[in-house]
């Protein structure tokens, strides 16, 4: 398939997934902000959401204080922020338009319908009081898109690159959501492992729709290391890092098999999976959860870049090779 | 220009011929539809109209209007009353269209080949050789199967039950065919019962015919199944929806200039597996933007080296470069003579009588009769830069006369024909509105025309401007067997 088409599909899937993830991130902060806080240290969940989203720089360029209003504005509807929900949905729609023929009718209608409806939301929809409904809507539209892709796309490279985009982005976002907790301060008299700590971890579980899953798998009170294990290492968890990395490996292997070529990105992906397979949650906490997550996010970014170079810019390289070949022949 | 539907402007002087006829005694091909119109309340039409609009919006069938602000993705208004031709009328038209396109192709081949038409004195040499549409690099180049215009959109108007006129030939990159197909798709969803009662000839196989046509003109040395692609200027082009629609229906890649690369006179596309050879390019980019090495060097849409690959016979471009020489409005007047000269036949379809302002006698006549004529810019399109005499004010006509005197070469004039009307659903209810027709003629090793075309309708009362850029709408076009 055309490199440009593959790249567009890959990014289309990433942007839809990112819109959903940002919605989940805002959702965690909303849930945490409903809990008691220490008047001395003040609230920190909105600041934490901004840090976890990776949008710190663009945020502080425009606003001084991370409050519910400013963070929601920046992460949900600010078109200057390329990772805001509205930006992601608009970019996804632009990408879709550019590769209309590679999308099925159902996928196009999911994206185009989202974009049309998005333009119809009034000022009201984005206030703190109404935002949960909007966030739910975003998750619903993202699910519709993924469902349409799964149910209607031909199982060929177009589909595989779409899925790669989804999982690269999802891995990034699960890591970021888990990292929110790192920056949220506990009030002075709250013990680690106390009631508030418990509710903050519960908020993280809820935001990735996995409170039930936690109970189902652990039958235990919410404990930080188990939440981390669930979201990092449990293969049963559809959003866990290990599941995402397994899927990435699976689709890369399919592509490699059909194209009959393994490339550096295959080795890179296999290495990330090996590392996850050979670690446990104790080791992660020894290194430090935050440090582990930061390293994972960097590795995941590198993998994304590598995929992009080897499949989307590969034909550029072969033109160069042709040129070099001719120059060599002339010399 | 691609995407801007070119069009007819002709004015009404006598009561127009209505294709349905009277409500009481409709013409036979309109019997079922006339009955349906009579029984359907306006409120239901309005409901169906909204439903149709919703379908268009959801599918994303939009087009951009240049020179205007506002929503960059506008819908062309769709009228839900079909325009109908009977089978016999269609056979006649179809024969005429095929004949005309064969002559046009022979003419273009001659212009870039032996130039016998010019040598025989059938057309002034300067009109061809000094025409901005004449592409010198095409001279002496042999194209596959000798075909230059593979997809021709011939604009036809009707003035009475038996007479059709060709208003304009579009030999470069005519657009609008996606509307022909989508209009039918939506109509059949909105009114299945009506289709069950009328024997409407289908049109949805157009993309298959188009693909066959494109494959049939693959370069001679192409072995095996040719790789066909559609070259589009990209998603900001006004006709982009149509490009994706056709590529999708044909199951071929839609590429942009940057996706193609030429190496050693062979065209390749960049894929996830490296470079893949391309044999036939259905291009929806104007000549000037095709190859920055040969034409406009500032073109970001084209492919460097494409012309050289074309000249080497390694790729077919459809339509051929330079085909525009046949659809220039001044060259138009010579088409009947082309039919006689190249085919030895009498033309089946008539031209609208045309005065060439470049000729002093004609110019004098035009200046004297400005109030009854339509004057068009030879290189204009989309209904821009023209004067509709009967609808213009005295001051407008005086101003136009000045322009005519200073640049007579640029203009032609035609009488104001009485364009036929069709029943159309407008705010006031069902009322007659003027229409034209653009059938699409596919010319490869054989010629095919899907029965129907794009009917454009001037929605304003009395208006003769059917152009989509000027408030015109479209209708589904039915060819029915009685």
pLDDT < 50 stretches of chain A: none
Sheet-strand content of chain A, in percent, reads under 5%
Mean pLDDT value of chain A: 88
Distance between the termini of chain A: 34 Å
Secondary structure tally: strands of chain B: 21
Largest interface between protein chains, with number of residues from each side? A-B, 31 and 27 residues
Mean pLDDT of chain B, rounded to whole units?
89
Number of helices of chain B: 13
Question: Which descriptors would you attach to this protein?
Answer:
heterodimer; A: 331 residues; mainly alpha; 16 helices; globular; B: 482 residues; alpha+beta; Dna Ligase, domain 1; 2 domains; disordered N terminus
SSE topology sketch:
The complex is a heterodimer of chains A (331) and B (482).
Chain A: H1 3-33, H2 45-53, H3 56-62, H4 68-77, H5 85-98, H6 105-118, H7 131-152, H8 157-183, H9 195-207, H10 211-218, H11 224-232, H12 241-259, H13 264-277, H14 281-287, H15 289-312, H16 314-330
Helix pairs in contact in A: 1-2, 1-4, 1-5, 1-7, 1-8, 1-9, 2-8, 5-6, 6-7, 8-9, 8-12, 8-15, 12-13, 13-15, 14-15
Chain B: H1 31-39, H2 42-59, E1 78-86, H3 87-111, H4 116-119, H5 125-129, E2 151-158, E3 164-170, H6 177-190, H7 192-197, H8 206-216, E4 228-231, H9 240-250, E5 253-255, E6 260-263, E7 266-271, E8 274-277, E9 280-283, H10 306-311, E10 316-318, H11 335-343, E11 350-351, E12 355-356, H12 360-368, E13 373-377, E14 387-388, H13 394-406, E15 411-415, E16 421-426, E17 429-438, E18 440-443, E19 447-449, E20 454-458, E21 472-480
Parallel strand pairs in B: 1-21, 3-11, 4-5, 4-9, 9-10
Antiparallel strand pairs in B: 2-3, 2-18, 6-7, 7-8, 12-15, 13-14, 13-15, 16-17, 17-20, 18-19, 20-21
């Amino acid at each position: 398939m055309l490199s440009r088409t593959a790249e567009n599909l890959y990014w289309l899937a990433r942007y839809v997934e990112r819109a959903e993830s940002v919605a989940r991130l805002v959702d965690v902060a909303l849930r945490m902000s409903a809990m008691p806080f220490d008047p001395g240290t003040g609230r920190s969940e909105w600041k934490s959401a901004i840090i976890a989203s990776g949008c710190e720089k663009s945020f502080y360029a425009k606003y001084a204080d991370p409050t519910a209003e400013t963070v929601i504005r920046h992460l949900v509807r600010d078109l200057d922020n390329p990772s805001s929900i509205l930006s992601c949905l608009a970019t996804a729609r632009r990408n879709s338009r550019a590769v209309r023929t590679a999308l099925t009718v159902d996928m196009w209608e999911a994206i185009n319908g989202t974009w049309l409806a998005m333009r119809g939301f009034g000022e009201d929809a984005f206030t703190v009081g109404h935002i949960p409904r909007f966030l739910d809507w975003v998750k619903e539209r993202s699910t519709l898109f993924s469902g349409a892709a799964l149910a209607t796309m031909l199982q060929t490279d177009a589909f595989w690159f779409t899925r790669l985009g989804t999982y690269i982005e999802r891995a990034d976002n699960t890591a970021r959501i888990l990292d929110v907790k790192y920056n949220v301060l506990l009030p002075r008299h709250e013990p680690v492992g106390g009631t508030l700590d418990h509710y903050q971890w519960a908020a993280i579980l809820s935001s990735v729709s996995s409170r039930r899953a936690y109970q189902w798998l652990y039958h235990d009170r919410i404990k930080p290391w188990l939440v981390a294990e669930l979201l990092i290492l449990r293969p049963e968890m559809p959003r866990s890092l290990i599941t995402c990395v397994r899927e990435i490996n699976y689709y890369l292997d399919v592509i490699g098999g059909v194209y009959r070529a393994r490339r550096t990105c295959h080795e890179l992906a296999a290495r990330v999976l090996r590392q996850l397979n050979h670690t446990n949650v104790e080791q992660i906490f020894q290194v430090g959860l935050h440090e582990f997550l930061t390293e994972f996010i960097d590795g995941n970014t590198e993998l994304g870049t590598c995929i992009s170079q080897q499949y989307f810019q590969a034909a550029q390289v072969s033109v160069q090779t042709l040129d070099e070949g001719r120059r060599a022949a002339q010399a | 220009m691609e995407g801007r539907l070119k069009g007819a402007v002709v004015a009404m002087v006598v009561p127009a011929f209505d294709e349905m006829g009277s409500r009481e005694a409709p013409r036979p091909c309109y019997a079922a539809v006339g009955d349906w119109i009579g029984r359907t309340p306006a409120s239901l039409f309005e409901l169906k109209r909204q439903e149709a609009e919703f379908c268009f919006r959801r599918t994303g069938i939009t087009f951009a209007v240049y020179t205007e602000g506002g929503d960059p993705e506008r819908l062309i208004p769709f009228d839900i009353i079909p325009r109908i031709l009977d089978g016999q009328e269609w056979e006649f038209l179809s024969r005429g269209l095929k004949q005309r396109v064969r002559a046009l192709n022979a003419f273009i081949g001659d212009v870039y080949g032996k130039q016998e038409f010019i040598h025989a004195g059938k057309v002034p040499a300067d009109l061809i050789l000094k025409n901005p549409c004449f592409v010198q690099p095409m001279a002496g180049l042999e194209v596959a199967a000798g075909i230059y215009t593979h997809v021709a959109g011939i604009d036809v108007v009707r003035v009475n039950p038996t007479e059709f006129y060709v208003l304009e030939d579009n030999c470069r990159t005519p657009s609008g065919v996606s509307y022909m197909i989508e209009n039918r798709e939506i109509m059949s969803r909105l009114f299945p019962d009506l289709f069950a009662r009328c024997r409407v000839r289908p049109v949805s196989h157009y993309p298959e015919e188009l693909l066959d046509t494109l494959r049939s003109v693959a370069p001679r040395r192409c072995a095996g199944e040719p790789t066909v692609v559609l070259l589009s200027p990209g998603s900001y082009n006004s006709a982009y929806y149509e490009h994706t629609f056709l590529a999708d229906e044909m199951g071929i890649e839609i590429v942009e200039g940057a996706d193609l690369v030429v190496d050693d006179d062979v065209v390749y596309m960049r894929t996830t597996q490296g470079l893949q050879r391309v044999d036939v390019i259905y291009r929806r980019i104007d000549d000037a933007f095709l190859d920055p090495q040969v034409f406009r060097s500032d073109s970001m849409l084209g492919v460097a080296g494409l012309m050289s690959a074309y000249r080497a016979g390694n790729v077919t471009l459809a339509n051929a470069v330079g085909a525009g020489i046949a659809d220039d409005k001044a060259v138009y007047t010579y088409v009947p003579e082309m039919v006689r000269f190249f085919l030895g036949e009498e033309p089946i379809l008539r031209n609208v009588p045309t005065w060439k302002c470049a000729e002093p006698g004609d110019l004098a006549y035009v200046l004297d009769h400005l109030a009854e004529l339509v004057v068009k810019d030879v290189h204009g399109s989309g209904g821009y830069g023209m004067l509709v005499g009967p609808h213009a004010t005295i001051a407008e006509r005086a101003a136009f006369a000045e322009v005519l005197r200073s640049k007579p070469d640029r203009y032609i004039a035609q009488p104001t024909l009485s364009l036929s009307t069709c029943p159309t659903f407008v705010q006031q209810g069902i009322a007659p509105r003027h229409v034209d027709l653009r059938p699409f003629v596919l010319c490869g090793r054989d010629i095919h025309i899907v029965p129907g075309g794009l009917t454009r309708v001037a929605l304003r009362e009395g208006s003769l401007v059917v152009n989509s850029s000027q408030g015109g709408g479209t209708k589904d076009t039915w060819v029915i067997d009685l």
